[in-house]
Batch of 2 targets.
Target 1
Amino acid sequence: MRDIFDAELAQLGEDLVAMSARVERAITQAGIALLSADVTLAEAVIADDLGIDAMERDLDERCVLLLAQQQPVATDLRIVVSALRMSASLERMGDLARHVAQVARGRYPRHAVPQSLSGTFAEMHDAAVRVARRTTTLLENRDIALASSIESDDDLLDELHEDTFTALLGGAWVGNPQETVDVTLLGRYYERFGDHAVSVARRVTYLVTGAHAAETPTTA
Amino acid sequence: MRDIFDAELAQLGEDLVAMSARVERAITQAGIALLSADVTLAEAVIADDLGIDAMERDLDERCVLLLAQQQPVATDLRIVVSALRMSASLERMGDLARHVAQVARGRYPRHAVPQSLSGTFAEMHDAAVRVARRTTTLLENRDIALASSIESDDDLLDELHEDTFTALLGGAWVGNPQETVDVTLLGRYYERFGDHAVSVARRVTYLVTGAHAAETPTTA
């Protein structure tokens, strides 16, 4: 019985890793699509989000079955409940990648990000890709040192998000309303991406150490 | 044993109703604060969000304890897992109310919403308040007829969100970048509020009817 349960828990872990890897690909491709105005890549990200959503549903069904059939307690129970929550965070990260891709597609053949902010968004993209990659690795190897680097990159994403507001509101902004709207939403998507990754990282940390990290201050 | 379990499930239901009622108050007050530039009310909403977050944590801990101690299966298990998910949606709705209040506070003593869009945001506020009230009532009485009116108001929120883009991008917009940013974010907060309420409504419907409603198409 315990063997079966361990195998099922291991499978759950592998599913989370696979889902995270797919989200990592989505955010990577969405950022490239955004920065290079690549509409084909944007379309691919948008289409693939349905697959990420399906992974979430499968994973959740598996968790519910596991709860029903194995009736886990203590740490095992926390692992299953955490998996339910982490899959929800990963699904939202997939949605955010899709939103970035939708903005890229909507402005094609133009670039959605104005020249003056392309450096800022290139940095956001790099930070988001690092966050996504480390989230996958953290789920894979439970090396909680990665959690703190995810938190650092989340802080960086917050700063870069602030930079976009400074650019928009500093008085020197010459963008049209469409550019203002796009920068506002894109900045928020990247910032939220970091928040969700931190949420996953804290859950893994909690499972490994048994200690709740300070609650994430949810930002706008 | 069953009696205790039924009492605990009933308590869980009551906790969700209480949490939803508090979110309903938050969205109501946040909208009033926004539309009337009432900074005191905005501060109250922002402060109260910590209480909503605490309710989510308590509710989740109770769910995990219930899973551990009662080992529910079948419908009972679905109820507990749904409660975990609904509390997460309600918590996000509370966050969104706080975000609206933060925008109101940030622009005080000015109005965050420009005159030309005050009618649109008054309609969004009304729809959001109806959605919040019906979500509370639905959790209370499980009258799934309410779910369809929540879906209708969510559609209305989507349309009003589109109206804000039309206003911003139609060529006649004369707002400054701060106003463009505020309208962009506020529109999104209200639109997301509807999405989360629909998610709660579909979970209740599923528990009552046993049939999954079509998946929510997640919008930007």
Target 2
Amino acid sequence: MSQVTQDPAASGSTGAYPATDRTVPTRSRERASWDRELVHSILDESYMCHLGFVRDGAPVVLPTLYGRVGERLYVHGSTGSRPLRGAGADEGLPVCLTVTLVDGLVLARSAFHHSVNYRSVVVHGTAHQVTDPDERALALDAIVEHVVPGRADDSRRANARELAATAVIRLDLEEVSAKARTGGPGDEPEDVALPYWSGVLPVRHSYGDPVPADDLDPAIAVPGYLGKR
Amino acid sequence: MSQVTQDPAASGSTGAYPATDRTVPTRSRERASWDRELVHSILDESYMCHLGFVRDGAPVVLPTLYGRVGERLYVHGSTGSRPLRGAGADEGLPVCLTVTLVDGLVLARSAFHHSVNYRSVVVHGTAHQVTDPDERALALDAIVEHVVPGRADDSRRANARELAATAVIRLDLEEVSAKARTGGPGDEPEDVALPYWSGVLPVRHSYGDPVPADDLDPAIAVPGYLGKR
């Protein structure tokens, strides 16, 4: 049998992102990774990112939802918002998109070795406005599905007026790194005998019971995709 | 009895932050607030911020812990880290520090009106390295206490070698705004009869049972300040 050998880089879904000056950290380098699967898993577990851009020479960081389709991230917003307008220029908008999951608080005997167990992804690149109607529709579905899987088909999709008021920007996953810390505290050997509790306080993210809208028809049950979360 | 009338702005702890070009949003202006108490309550409930700065003309956003002492925020890190080094220059480092708490996912009948209940604070300003030893000690305690109240006195404080390896930067709360969304979905009247569930999925942040370090003396009990969280 013949076999086609895939180039991992060309496949876009295996292997690692290239390390660049911007994606090799100056500190805690042992926590850094460029592994695509790890990057995708962190991006897919969260739905809230912090998007940074430069306005009048100064940094601006805003929280926003995002979706992922393969090697592309999508962010949406009002056509009037400043970063989305900025991404509409031909040259696009240089951005840094960061996603952080906190898994635990690490309490060492020494204040110095206190830390956080976390997983984060930092994406550097240039965001561009998406103008193709099919890609815009795909992106908007991806954002809804990213936050609540199963919801896109169980809601009314945007109409022409709403689409006209919505800007979508795209950021390709090219210059990307993950960073993660796991495990217990890293105390100095001479501190282990100190009389302080030491360990990890796990951080939990969960959902409460769905709260129906005041005007919801009581005959409409909570959908299964909410119960499973 | 005589009474001293305080100037709210001068007291630094009451009233509102001044609205500036950078702290008046272009969209969802009704969600914005400059109220000090609201800003402080959001900053005190979280402990993880996203710090944005500009490097070689491009934005960088990194997650980091912070502490608050009155109208000052403190961030610490390795003396080798790039933003902390940048803040050591005489002119300081222009930053944007953003804190976001997610309270719920808002599911409207229309995809367009899907939203998130959240509270966020955005601080614009210039970060400066703290060199005064007393202020550095105060800041490091504040960061530990911010993450786990009660922990600073129940751990070994930094020694001279650790202090020499730690940079602390300060960001004054001067140009600050909060933004918050609460409540149920805001569907269009013509969408209310659509057959889709609508409401809010509350997001919960909690802690699991503390996990002791492998080398912890079993005689050391879990401290009360962890049990109360």
